[in-house]
Amino acid sequence: MNLKSYVAMIAMAVGFAAPASAQSVISAGRAIHIEIRGVPQEEVARVNGDYTVSDSGLISMPFIGNVRAAGLSATALGASIAEAYRSAQIYNNPNVQVQSDSLSTQQKLMVHIGGQVRRTGPVDFVPGLTIYQAIQSAGGPTEFGAMNRVELLREGRIKTLDLRQTQMKGFTLLKDDTITVPEKNPFGN
To answer: How far apart are CA 144 and CA 127, in angstroms?
Structure first.
């Protein structure tokens, strides 16, 4: 067994030896912060930063591609990333720190709701959130809200949805979507 393998085994053992209650498990859709020490100075800005765990549970790391993050603790993910860089012979001795528990390092995933709802403003986003669920989370429409002309703003484009139709209520949102429930016109629409 060479020295690299021995160090990797120790790092992984230390990561798995931490009590399960000491760290939460990383889940899909979560934002994490990664810092890697022991890399060339010109690559620090490229590898250090905030990463979002995809719906499939992966993060995309520079030079090594996708790494499984969901289901791991921050310590175990750090050890996994370090081993991937060593195995690929990109970095000899990376020291990977993953922060996933601190609110200051996590991005809050939100959708935004305005117009004729009882509580305008941001609503927590979770994968699978539907437009109808988001509006209900904002207290539902007011008596003046036109549910047949709900506007969804996504990536600079507006889509109008008729939420009186059952199939439209299941329209799935993406993080940072903006929903507006317009006011009814004089005819009640």
So the answer is: 29
